[in-house]
Design a protein that fits this description.
alpha+beta, Beta Polymerase, domain 2, OB fold (Dihydrolipoamide Acetyltransferase, E2P), 8-stranded antiparallel beta sheet, 6 helices, about 35% strand
Length: about 350
């Protein structure tokens, strides 16, 4: 059996009906590191009112925070794969256990091709018509994720979750969205333009305030509100950057080791934010001052973030405050330090933000 060729945001469905999101671009051979996103009600139920999804008679529940990791680890350990670089198991699916694959681009074409579109799919097409025309992009440059990918969306309530493929296309899209946000007649506005977007938000991160979060989110430009006349509501619309196939290079190597070197807090200057739009987000840095932790942190060459909150968080030349795990990456040819922001015990203490 040939290895499956999948990338970030592609979906894997298992025989039990568990729905996984492929996470990033670096994976062990014939397997994929994943997030588990949804489970059918036959094997999992959630008390979280936000978790309920249904596709006709089929009911699913979405996992939040670390409950998916814990569920898989305790109930379905076959979906914990060994990561040789980390020397531990992570959530993932072996190719032999893949029952179905859903690709965002193909599903988008199916949704748009539907003859009788419901109001959410019609609104999605309107959004795409607006941005593709303004940015000179094609429908093939986009995909869908979330409930639109899996078919259990509510036409009157659900958001529009889109994938945008390719580094150059992401740049072009952001420039277009900035222009649309500034046009009085545009139906597309920046979701984070006002504090209304964070009103009542459950916020647990300790080292970045909600107002700081608002400031960072606003300038990312990929979070929009689309006013749809047919439904009479403003629909949250997200454009999730994903790499084109020719932009992908895997860093996974069985001969490389990633060693934990303790918690650190530093100030650093961003030297390369070209890969900040993707997951994992990578920022080249020059460390300026170690505030806590091992002195080796001053040698850190990059920040690598697997957390969507800190995607596109800083730009070239900006000074950032970062707090997370210092790691030493040792390959057969070289060794370097990085600061990782990812799932860990001190999850909500992690931060990456522009200083001041």
């Amino acid at each position: 059996m040939a290895a499956l060729k999948l990338r970030d945001r592609d979906a894997i469905i298992t025989e039990e009906g568990l729905i996984f999101r492929v996470f990033g671009y670096s994976h062990p051979p014939k397997s994929h590191v994943c997030d588990v996103e949804y489970a059918p009600s036959s094997i999992f139920k959630s008390n979280n009112p936000k978790a309920f999804r249904n596709e006709g008679q089929n009911v699913f529940y979405k996992f939040y925070e670390d409950e998916g990791w814990k569920f898989v680890e305790s109930k379905y350990p076959q979906y914990m794969i060994f990561h040789e670089m980390l020397r531990r198991k992570v959530v993932g699916v072996n190719d032999k256990d893949v029952y179905e694959v859903r690709r965002p681009g193909a599903i988008l074409q199916d949704r748009i091709g539907t003859l009788r579109k419901d109001e959410l799919v019609a609104a999605m097409q309107s959004v795409l018509d607006t941005v593709t025309k303004s940015a000179s992009l094609d429908l093939d440059d986009f995909g869908v994720f979330g409930s639109l990918l899996h078919g259990f969306y509510n036409p009157r309530l659900s958001d529009i979750d889109l994938v945008i493929y390719g580094e150059k296309n992401v740049i072009r899209l952001r420039e277009t969205l900035k222009d649309l946000y500034g046009a009085d007649s545009s139906p597309v506005k920046n979701e984070f333009e006002t504090e209304q977007s964070i009103k009542g938000k459950d916020w647990r991160f300790r080292n970045v305030s909600l107002k700081e979060y608002l400031w960072h989110q606003r300038r990312k430009l990929i979070y929009a509100l689309f006013y749809n006349a047919r439904s009479g509501r403003k629909i949250k619309t997200e454009f999730e950057p994903v790499k084109e196939w020719n932009e992908i290079s895997s860093e996974y190597s069985p001969e490389t080791r990633i060693l934990q070197r303790g918690w650190t807090r530093i100030l650093a200057k961003v030297t390369d934010a070209s890969q900040a739009a993707f997951i994992p987000s990578v920022y080249g840095i020059e460390s300026q001052q170690v505030l806590e932790g091992s002195k080796e942190a001053v040698e850190a060459k990059r920040i690598i973030s697997y957390m969507e909150e800190f995607r596109m968080q800083a730009e070239d030349g900006e000074t950032v405050y970062v707090e997370g795990n210092l790691e030493e990456v040792t390959t057969p040819k070289r060794s370097f330090y990085q600061i990782a922001l990812t799932y860990c015990e001190r999850y909500y203490e992690q931060v990456l933000k522009v200083k001041n």
